[in-house]
Amino acid sequence: MDDPLTSISQSPLPVAAQDPQVAGPLAGIRVVDLSSYMTGPLTATTLADLGAAVIKVEPPGGDGFRGFGHKVNGWSALWSSCNRGKRSIVLDLKQQAGLETLKCLLADADVLVENWRPHVAASLGIGNAVLDTVNPRLVHLSITGFGDSGPLAHAPAYDSLIQGYTGMAHLQGTEGAPAVAAYWVVDKVVAAFGAQSVLAALVQRQRTGRGSHVSLPMLDVAAYFNFSDMAQHRTFVGDETPWKTPFNPVVRTADGHLIVTPVNGGQLSRTLKALGRADLKDRMLAMKDHGEMIDFFYRNLNEILSTRPTAHWIAFFAPHDVPVAPVMSLEQHLVDPQVLHNRIYHEVPSPAGAPLRTPRYPARFDGTLLAPAAAPPVVDADAARVRAELSSTSSNRQP
User: What is each CA distance from 274 to 203, 257, 258, 278, in whole angstroms?
Assistant: First the structure.
């Protein structure tokens, strides 16, 4: 199937293919991915999108996460999205032969990604001391739930559990009932920090000549990521102000909803002036309680905007530089003109029999967009080629 995004000629930005002729920033970096679920695999796929070569090591029978979630022709959409651009080899790390093959892979690798509990790597015979002997330049990323030590070090950790431990579920609740986010926001943020941490470690290696063990607890990532806005009322020590639930900027229209978010006085004034209701501003200024003022504003806005359809209000507010957005469905988002212009999504062939839609890496490098890494691999599909490469490398090492 043709990728409709490649035919958008009005975009001046070239798209780089994932091939040697147009190398990504991480071209030449070799990654071994031993992880499962989302945090580690999405970290490794991010590195693949940036040009790194990634080998996914799966246990006998394949990664158990392959069977998770929504499937098309037996292929998990979630697993596929988190494991694009990798080659697959099956190794039984509980057997000496599999462990030795892994060590050979790591000897020439730049990065190892795993998200086991703290004791697992050492129990398999690839603890930090062993890895340092195998390859002192290796950057070893360990994603854990709570860290390498402490009362929860060996406890299971998943996205929803971390939301519970960090206050997210408590603050997202309504009417006294806690709630977790509908999406795996913690796992995805951990993956982003995982890629960032690997890149920082590679820069450090360039300066020192040595690799490092990077420990990345999900608990720490979520706390760091959430703190700036979620913990405003705890930023200054001694501040015990109660949490104030953020206002809801979604306003009803005649045929749907519109998000209206004036974030300063000027935007609020322009909103009311455009609607011919500047009189409301004086009444709002007389209110001493900020929450009362915002409630008053949106109560009136809901009444006014409910008289016309969403498209009318988007066009109406545009000349006044009022920050508004439609509440799109996912289907509407995929065909939005700005999304198409930015060429965010591409289609790549997939072993599922249907093309895989996937986003590209969001950054532009000197005006060039990096095309997404290739489709996810079939279990053990690259074993023969990987072993042949290892044999060739081993031969080249002989005196």
Answer: 51, 19, 16, 8
